[in-house]
Every structure is written in structure tokens, then in C-alpha cells.
Amino acid sequence: DVVLTQTPPTLSATIGQSVSISCRSSQSLLHSNGNTYLHWLLQRPGQSPQLLIYLVSRLESGVPNRFSGSGSGTDFTLKISGVEAEDLGVYYCVQGTHAPWTFGGGTKLELK
Amino acid sequence: EVQLVESGGSLVQPGGSLKLSCVASGFTFSNYWMDWVRQTPGKSLEWIGEINTDGSKTNYAPSIKDRFTISRDNAKSTLYLQMSNVKSDDTAIYYCTRIPDYWGQGVMVTVSS
User: Fold this and answer.
1) CA distance A104 to chain B (A)
2) Would you list which residues of chain B are within 8 Å, Cβ to Cβ, of chain A?
3) Whether B5 contacts B78, CB under 8 Å
4) Among A34, A58, A62, B83, which residue's beta carbon has the most beta carbons within 10 A?
5) pLDDT tens digit at each of 113 positions of chain B
6) Would the CB atoms of B100 and A105 count as touching at under 8 Å?
7) B112, B113, B109: which is closest to B48 by C-alpha?
């Protein structure tokens, strides 16, 4: 199975600070059809996961544009340009290129 | 609005059985593969299985294979997870999901004597 390694495991930020989360895959996530099925989820405290970014860099409807995703192959990054209080929670990368679906270990974003 | 509403979570004894349900609305349920994902307390997410659109094909994680069965009733827009011979390691929140874009609120399953 594909292993997704997220760093850092915990991120402390102040409101307004820009932060980045890395997701590294054990193998390339480029599918033979040309798509890269790497997505980012946010799980706020006490809630279920919600989709933020799909196919590496596409912003899900309703998600603020301070969130952005980038990367290719095995290395991916989620950036938040100006953290807001509602952004606190655990971020997960998830891949669907290679069955089965696998998730990163999560990055907890907390207030400094 | 897409909604996935799970039910059926409870306390169950080791070796026992439990059936979870997930009612979908807001989209054409029969057009989508559906999945179950679980989350142990304080831990990451684990994909446990999926079912194709007409219910003829399922795939499972090794950790639950031969113990859990996923099924669906497209007429009722409902997804099921039949859990058998449960173990303490199966204690988790179970999410019904149209991965990765829509997730249910999750149901807690606790396996304990």
C-alpha cells in the first residue's frame, strides 16, 4: 500500500501567519490517465473530515482561497496564507491513485 | 445538499455482531461507489472497504476482510456495514463516505465486555 508521510505532525501558528504542510508519498501518485489523485481534508474538533483540495490543487467549492495545494509525483504541499481561527484542526492528505485509499498521519494545526 | 447519515453504532461484546447503516440524500446514490472509513480514538483514518454502484463488487482492507460485509440498497439510497466477530481493535468511529468529497457525521462502535 502507498504510505503517505505528513510533516510536521503538529503546527503552532498565530492568526494571520502563513503555514505549509508537507505530504510525501512512497510512490508516484501520477495515474496512468494523467490525473494525480491526491487530496487534502480538514477535520475540525468533534467533526467529520471535509474536503479542502482535490486533485492536488483544485479548491473545493466554498473553501476559502487562502488554502492552496501544489506538488507532483511524490511530494505535495498544502499552504494556508493567513491562518484564521476556524482553520484549527487536523489536516490529512489522502490518495486514491493506487488502491486501496490511504491517508497521511495527520497534521494538527493549533494556535500558538 | 448532500447528506450522509449513519446509524447503528453501539457497545458490542467481543465476538459479537453489529450492522451500521448510512442513508444518503442530495445526489444520485446509485451512480457512485461508496466507502467506509474508520478512525480509532486520537488516531488517523483507515479505509476499510468499498462497494461499486450496483453492489456486485466489493473490496476490503485485510484488517476486516472475512469479518465485515459491505452492501447497499439503491432503492433506499442506503449503504450498510455488517460487522461480525468484532474485536477490541475494531473500536472506532465509522464514517460512511463518498470519498473524498462527502462524509457522514460518523458513528461510534465500542467493542468491550
Assistant:
1) 7
2) 35, 37, 44-47, 50, 59, 61, 95, 99-106
3) no
4) B83
5) 999 999 999 999 999 999 999 999 999 999 999 999 999 987 889 999 999 999 999 999 999 999 999 999 999 999 999 999 999 999 999 999 999 999 999 999 999 99
6) no
7) B109
Write down the residue that cell numbers 486533485 correspond to: A55
Grid coordinates representing B106 are: 460518523
Angstrom distances, CA of residue A88 to CA of A28, A43, A57, B80: 29, 9, 20, 32
Identify residue B96 by its one-letter amino acid code.
Answer: C
Cα separation of B40 and A27, whole Å? 26
Residue to mutate among B33, B39, B45, with most A CBs inside 10 A, is B45
Pick among A101, A103, A107 to test the B interface (most B CBs inside 10 A): A101
How far apart CA B111 and CA B79 sit, in angstroms, is: 22
Please compute Rg for chain A using Cα positions.
Answer: 13
